[in-house]
Here is the input.
Amino acid sequence: MSQSIRVAVLGAQGRMGSAACTAIEQAEDLELVARIGSSDHLEGAAEAGAQVVVDLTVPSVTKRNVLWAIENGIHAVVGATGWDEDSLAEVREALGGSPATGVLIAPNFAIGAVLTMRFAEAAARYYESAEIIEMHHPDKLDAPSGTARHTAAAIARGREAGGLGSVPDATEKDELGARGAVVDGVHVHAVRQRGLVAHEVVQFGGVGEQFQLRHDSFDRVSFMPGVLLGVREIASRPGLTVGLDGYMDLG
Here is the structure.
């Protein structure tokens, strides 16, 4: 029997972190060696012998956590949001000094959400119009969500591959911002409402038809298969990977 992978969870006291701890403890091939909360020192993960840290913290600290993990030669599976291109560039640079270390930054760990992003890229080349509505609980700190940003980027790639220009929109006046944010040329609308967890609707429109993709996470347990996939695969995936689809056989 192969040796268990030793895992530490950062943000262990949060809802996602708590769910991740439970999932790791229930997995026969994984061992939870440290629960790191906001008042704990990161060194506790290294002292516990963690081979992988799962970062489910907040945007203000996640980059610092990942750079610390790289410096210590610990793989990092990251679900915290707030990453931009400059931050990703810092991670790539740091990984240059630790080439065997892997970092996975996943905008969404739900398998259905990953498939929605991939399907959206495939569909985008065939429809003149495309918009995204993302819906989350009101305690979410960022908007639009990382998933929506990732989806918009996928749609933009699909539109470029299909030779499409800008999404048609004759709006000349929008003083209140009713048309939402524009991410990679795609309008994104963010809803924050009590009772929601994580939901996304991608709408495509063509002459005489509408095509809609929708994914709903009703419980944070829906993210755990993706978290466990990342933990199990990351040692064999050195370097930076953005998006769980990089670990999935999607062609």
Remarks:
- The longest helix spans residues 146-161.
- The chain is about 30% helix and 25% strand.
- The longest strand covers residues 198-206.
- The helical segments are 15-26, 43-47, 59-71, 85-95, 111-124, 146-161, 224-233.
